User: Fold these one by one.
Assistant:
Number 1:
Amino acid sequence: MHGRFTIEGFGRHVPERVLTNADLEAIVDTSDDWITTRTGIKERHIAAPGETSSDLAVVAARNALAQAGRTAQDLTHIFYATFTPDAVCPPASSILQEKLGIQGRSAVDMNAACSGFLYALEAGMGALALRPGSTALITASEITTCRTNWADRGTCVLFGDGAGAVILSDKEPKPGQAVIKDIITKSDGSLWPLLTVKAGGSGWPLKLGEQVKEDYFIEMNGPEVYKNAVRSMGQVCEEIVTRNGLAMDDVDLFIPHQANLRIIEAVGKRLKFTGDRVMVTVDRYGNTSAASVAIALSDAVSEGRVKSGSTVLLTTFGGGFTWGAAILKFI
């Protein structure tokens, strides 16, 4: 990579309302034991009526700015990862810019499904390389529950709402900040039918008066998603660690996409990460899609899971299929 890319601040925000597995028992044919055994999820945060993706993102952004000792006026770019924007148009990034009280900045939405945060992070690095001296807000925010079919027990138990954010610059890092050592993003469009939210797109347009159907919500071939997620995240982690002259033993904390505990454990086993070396937040947030890794990273910092000199490996996987990995070094 060319140039220095510093994460100055980390932030996250989740809605106040908590939906437990016991609560779900009253909604769909399921049980706490069934959910916990298969996913590791105990609860998730759910947006209040009228609460939007940008409402969550603005709080996460302000938290990241505060930790970085920055204000919104310092921002030159906003990269906003989501598959659940406030509206099809305008972009959620423009709405977020207005809520931050700034104008005239570059702002763009990015949809790489659950891999969105790493894709947006890489785009932010590109902006800094092209425009040295820039400061970018990288945020990922989802109201996944607006696209959750509460009659489908195979998917409705998995998802939650939340937002994560980081402040990215090319400045010399300070203690508590992190340098991005490398990043890889990948995709395989041949597998897109395995994980979809189709209705409302140009290929599946909605018609006035038409009843909402199953394809408006998240539809997933669980076994195939599991198989591809474990393989793809494992391979990309091995690739990025090797090309940076590292070994898995050099990684102090592994932060994978928080889809479900079985996937986390399977990838960790392949890479020989166990115990405290693996960051797990899926039990309390569920799968927050693009926000997943960003929230987990912010929690890792606030909980003291990283310290000066820590090497952190991030990886993610989502619809598309998309996937990726990044290596951070904390100062």
Number 2:
Amino acid sequence: MASIQTTSFDTIHEIYQQPEMWRQTYQILLDKEKEISEFMTSHYNEETTIILTGAGTSSFIGNILEFVMPKYGFYSVKSVPTTDITTHPEAIFNKNKKYILVSFARSGNSPESLAAVNIADSICHNNIAHIIITCNENGKLVKEYAEDNRLILILPPETNDKGLAMTSSFSSMLLASMLLFDVKKIVNKKEGIDNLYKKGEYFISTYSDQIKKIAALDFERAVFLGTGELKGIAEECHLKLQELTDGKVVCLFDSFLGLRHGPKAAINEKTLLVYLFSNDDKVFQYERDLVVQTNQQVKPIAQIYVSQKKRSTGNVVFDLEVLPDRMNFTEFDAILYVLIGQLLGFYKSIDLKLDPDNPSASGKIARVVEGVIIY
């Protein structure tokens, strides 16, 4: 395992522990293979819509899975934040349809997470079942909602991050869901998990110092770009950097193609650009064209290349090239990309003389959301 720097901050420990958490998460899902299979057999058929939900970072897991789950044979899938279910449930649920609601929750105590389950039950009655993936065995989602139509998966206690920012909780819940929805093949995935562990260790030990140097640059904005499931990873990266810097760095995310349609106006000479490149060669052509065009129009303060393999982007020069996937490709490699946002966020927080574990000096944001009244 990569050596963890001597520091009192929980956040960096929670970032560095992720490869081990991924191995432990795999073992938890493997041990529950029979229970998961029986639950899916009982509650899922071709008429079932799977709703993926959570708030903030937890909701981004669903945005990623929308692109992943068709690979496992699930096409009727929607990612809907608990915040939207709470306010507009009638736009989400039809009482005559069949659903599985998958709730992602670090603490399991967020008001909207609890409300989403209650609202879904009140509308759908016997037409809904629940999968709860959480990092807290003592959360209300576990304690108050353990019923016959629930599958509850509790991840290693260390994934219940103590820091404000979700790090190991995010990546471990994402991995758990990828294993869950392909549970029939879970026994054969150990080699892929072992490779993911090694790649995570390599990423952290090889690139942390270089990312720290990039974080010390005087950028005021950051834009993260990804395509398909990597757009959801870009979404998580943008939030990590923005919340860990208490909004002092304003961040955006988009797809490479989507950036052209207006958001590119935000890029200036004080912008850090982070490209999460696709492994698909056809998709990469679209991404490369955007990079070349952008560099012809503006000179950002720095650019980071993150990819599973090195490919040409013309004459564009990158300030950092992150290539963590020199070992065999695995289906889980997209998870690795989140490390760039987490590490940038941590080191930029330090650079700005903030407390990464509690960067919000004014209390604008908190580890578990506060001030929400459910009506």
Number 3:
Amino acid sequence: MATFRYASMSRRAALTAAALAAMATVAGCTAKTGGDAKGDMALGAGADAKITVVEYASVTCGHCAVWNEEVWPEFKTKYVDTKKVRFVFREFPTPPQDIAAAGFLIARCAGEDKYFDVVHDIMASQKEWAAGVAPRTTLFRAAAAAGLSQEQTEVCIRDKAAIEEMSDRIEAGIDAGVTGTPTFLVNGTKVVDSSLSGLSQAIDAELAKK
């Protein structure tokens, strides 16, 4: 699990600064309209689902990328596609947090229907970063694949309202006790074992309840 602790004296300032730093790093996301930056991004069952699985993750987190590649496909098939659970993804940027913030802003700008595709695309790009490809290059590529022009992408990360809303979500995660990524909650209870078997044990126990 990747860990990241924000300065305790001013969490809001640190969070906002991290997001704003994305402007200089990517220089290059207004979304078409800034994107729908309010609320959770979710897949599977609706808001009235019996089981809600929340993942706090970062597009720059190596452990998150591994989980996304190795566990997510089967987890999605078993629980999300069957609508047995509501799967909620919550942003929790980890170093380099400017890249993570930019990635999440781009995903929001792409729209709800493409949000997860962009997140997964950026996570998969970590292998390219390790090979020397600049993150900025892969962020713009992910944006283009989602239908955002370069101009839209450059404006996207300057959307101060979206940055503020993301800061609120991150701070809520901190208040909930999240200190690293990925962190999984099943109906509000943290699950230490994030393997498919570990998550299945927690989910199936909830499903068995009347």
